[in-house]
Amino acid sequence: MSTDIVLRAEGVGKRFGGFTALSGVELEVRAGERLGLIGPNGSGKSTFTNCLAGAFPSHDGGFTFKGQKLAGLTSHERARRGLARTFQLPRPFRGLTVLENIRVPLAYGGRDSATDERAMECLQSVELASKAHRMPRELTQVELRRLELARATALRPELLIADEVMAGLSHAEVDQILALLFRLNGNGTTIIMIEHVMRAVTEFSQRLAVLVAGKKIADGDPRAVLSMPEVEEAYLGR
Ligand SMILES: Nc1ncnc2c1ncn2[C@@H]1O[C@H](COP(=O)(O)OP(=O)(O)OP(=O)(O)O)[C@@H](O)[C@H]1O
Question: Which residue numbers delimit the ABC transporter domain (predicted)?
């Protein structure tokens, strides 16, 4: 694993009206790293993702990605720079086939890359090639998650934020998605996994960061972090 810092969050804060959803969040992610970002419901994980991906601005602080500040860039511009995210509820274009769904992000990456061949390659990487000409409504839950991952990673991002891609899946399906994420990481993609399926997070993460009520309360070796009394109390409810 390289020691280059690919992402740095500095003092990130976000308010919704009078409610503080994030406060002073500092985070560094190394190139090639697998980081788990955990925390109870409502602790600010998706808000952090939305600020990072440019869905809405943060009120305080900001992000540096590959040495460049992200402030002022739209979510599309961030995606073009290699920052990808999935959505908790998969958001395929319902009126397009599975293959056409992959052509959309490819088209963002430049006219030449939006070929059927490249789209099929993406589908093969998530084992969905046999469903290329199906409509999203014909896919199972786990296939929809795979399509979401293929859409997010079509442009071969340097950093992927996988936001609860395992929710509601069976044990075996979680293993399938885990294998896929390990493969993506093995091919060089840095991954931040936001997940409530603890088995998956602990198996996947080289490091864990914990958000509670909008603040980062722990960051380090997964075993050490999970055995911290404040994490057990806040997150695991023990
Ligand atoms: N658009 C919004 N307007 C007002 N409050 C919001 C908005 N988005 C999030 N919040 C609030 O901010 C807090 C953090 O929410 P967020 O969705 O980031 O938590 P989370 O850690 O991702 O939770 P979960 O694990 O349930 O997905 C919550 O209290 C939520 O109600």
Answer: 7-238
